[in-house]
Predict the 3D structure of the following.
Amino acid sequence: GNSVTQMEGPVTLSEEAFLTINCTYTATGYPSLFWYVQYPGEGLQLLLKATKADDKGSNKGFEATYRKETTSFHLEKGSVQVSDSAVYFCALSDFNTGKLIFGQGTTLQVKP
Amino acid sequence: DTAVSQTPKYLVTQMGNDKSIKCEQNLGHDTMYWYKQDSKKFLKIMFSYNNKELIINETVPNRFSPKSPDKAHLNLHINSLELGDSAVYFCASSQDRAGRNEQFFGPGTRLTVL
């Protein structure tokens, strides 16, 4: 079945450091891929998405590229801020039902 | 205006009780979902409705029953609550059931079963 694997957290970085959170997936067909972010005490918000191979999603300085050959969708940001501290979820969606399958989440803590 | 709202935000109850969580979206979306987030933050789909029709029913105990009176509302009723039901429950909606669409999440309902 479909699945998503994310790197284990927590990830602790200093402000302005480079961020990479690895995400790989297993899927049949052509899923869309997403990164959602969850700030403390809140629901999830879409950070970025890509709907086909080689698409790059980007938002707020974050970006990720849909790599079919390596079944990956790694999240990157060149310079993190304290306000980026949150839990990040990689997810894929079922083509027909829209059902999201999430990775286990990666907690990011950015220190000043 | 809140796009996806849930009530209540917190729910503390005793084992064996029956409780409901309500969800409403004002985005005009056709599809709504319920997800469960456990204590380790892991998120799993429970149910999905498209235009009031059930389209996803994961392996959830039949003590959980979703109800969609109209396409803007998807409520979750839980009978005979158990300790293991303690979690955060998120409602979400999307324009339609196509996988490429973003899902909009509510703020969550933290259920604690004592």
